[in-house]
Amino acid sequence: MIAAAERRPGRTASGADPTERDRSAAALERLSELLAKDMQSVNRIIVDRMQSPVGLIPQLAGYIVAAGGKRLRPLLTLAAAELCGYSGERHHKLAASVEFIHTATLLHDDVVDESERRRGQSSANSLFGNQASVLVGDFLFSRSFELMVEDGSLDVLRILSRASAVIAEGEVLQLATTNNLNTSEADYLAVVAAKTAALFAAACEIGAIVAERPASDADALNRFGLNFGIAFQIADDVLDYSAREALLGKTIGDDFREGKMTLPAVYAISRGNEVEAAFWRRTLEDMEQQEGDLDHAISLIERHGGFTAALDLARRHGELAIEALMLLPPSQMRGALASLVEFCIEREF
Q1: Within-domain flag for 252
Q2: What is the pTM of this model?
Q3: How does residue 128 score in pLDDT terms, banded at 50, 70 and 90?
Q4: 6-10, 36-40, 99-103, 324-328: which range is least confident on average?
């Protein structure tokens, strides 16, 4: 993995030069190219299954699906299935199911967080309203379960339905940590493991199920996805304080403005003095924020090594993910997935 470097606004994730960034970004492009044909099938299923005679449903669903994103979760399902030697088509519907679960949670998240931006454009709730966003999110959840049932595997249904429940638990747990300055690293990781990593883990594990691989392979892919998901979310939370808005595709500092206790702030708060604690109480607990507070928060995180410590933890989980991945047979796909882990930790968008 790339050596740790303190992250600052406007800097790259690793302090790397453009050539190094290009090599890192190429990891995602490589995986997408390897799975391009399969992903075309997945996209056709997504477009087909978000149709409804109720016009607002495909309109709103199409808006957020068309916004794009990296499509990491369905890519993981496709990659895991190929890594396990699967050559059928079941994983196409299941990858679409995974994407519908993810998209539904995005719609619900933006309503809860009152977000105005998503992937560089207006969020669905800011355009269509909270009620429509919640209900279309419910529709996509239902579509995802239709696809699971059509697959016919009780193991697949068990894995994905459990992940959906855990994601919901993570959302509620995050509410309990929001505005709570007593949030610990362990509390934060519990939220991340449930809210983000659970779907990564499930998306990978079902690849082994459709390929009828032994339980040891399914477990290895579950652990790969879980640790990858944790690493991914930690890096994403660092970006919220330190990336450039044009690259990240959302307003920088959203977590700060919403009073979310993400890892960079958790570290800064735990290592700060009483004067700094008063600042965090005013801005994150009492939500009395004013101009310049975000910049001051960033300076405090930098002072206490919050960005470095967070990225170090992300890298440790990335290493655990790759260790689990190495239990699978060597292949071009395994190499692409290992490279993807580094990209997602060191990315700047």
Answers
A1: yes
A2: 0.90
A3: confident
A4: 6-10
Task: Provide φ and ψ at 270, rounded to 5°.
Answer: -70, -25
What rounded mean pLDDT belongs to the chain? 88
The token pair that represents 128 in the structure block: 């269509």
Q: What's 311's domain CATH number?
A: 1.10.600.10
Query: Does residue 3 sit within a domain?
Result: no
Res. 349: pLDDT tops 60: no
